[in-house]
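Researcher: Here's a chain I'd like modeled. Treat it as a single chain, no partners, no ligands.
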Amino acid sequence: MDSIFESIGEIQDAQEQAEEIKETLGKSTYKSLFDGLANQYDLVEVEEISEEIKNGGTPKRSNDDYWGGDIPWLKSGELNEGYLSTSEEGLTEEGLSSGSAKLMEPKTVLIAMYGATRGKTAILEKEMTTNQAICGVLVNEEKIIPEFLQFCIKAKKRELVGKGRGGGQDNINQTTIKETKIPLPPLEVQEEILEKISDIEELLEKDFDSKRKKITEDLPKSVLAEAFKGNLVDFGAMSESDELGSTDQEIREKQDSSFDGEGQQSLGEYH
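Model: Modeled as a single isolated chain. C-alpha cells:
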C-alpha cells in the first residue's frame, strides 16, 4: 500500500508541476507581447487613461448594522484574474454610508495591493465595493479597453511588486499604479491583442485540462487496478519526464507559432 500512495503522490506532484508550467507560459506570453507593444507605441501613465482611481475601505466590523446587506463587498483574495459579480460578504446601506467603503462602477479594473495577493486583478461586472487592499481603476473607454489595461497589469506584475512601497512585503500603493507606464495602441489593435490572448489562454487551458485529467483520473485508477492484481506499476520515471516534458514542448511550440511569427507580423501592420 505504501508503494501505491507513493505513486499517487508522485502523480499529484506532477499535476502541481503542470500548473506551474501553465502559469509560467502564461506570464511569458503576457510579458513578450507587452514588450513588443512597448517598442511600437507611445507609453502613457495609467492615470492618463483613467476616469477615476480609488481604493476601497472597510466599515467597522464591530457594528453589526453595517454588515450582512445586499451591497457586494470584495476582499483582495477574491480577485480571480477574470470577471466578478458576486462577493463572499455584503454591506448594508448604513455600512456603505459610513464613509469607509466606496461603490465602484461596472468595468472597473481591480488591482490587489497588499500581501500574498498583490498584483492580482479582476474586472467588475456590476457595481460593488471593496476593502482598502484593492485599488479600482475606471478607464476612459475612448482611449483604452478595460481588459487591455488588465493585460498590461498582468504583464507588469513583477515590476509593480518590485516597486512596492510598503516595507518588507513590497506592497503596491495607488501612486505606484497611477504612475505605471503602459503602451497605448489604437483601440482596434487593443481588440486584436485581446483576441490573441484569448486564443493562447484557451490553448493552454485545453491542453492542460486534458493532461490534468489523465494524471489525476486515469493513472491513479491504473495504479490501484494493478495493485489489486498484485502488480504495482512504477510511474516515477514517466510522470515528470514523459508526461510533462512532452506537454511543455507542445505548448511552447504552439505559443511560438501563434505569437512569434503571425502575431508580430500582425502587430507590424498597425505600427
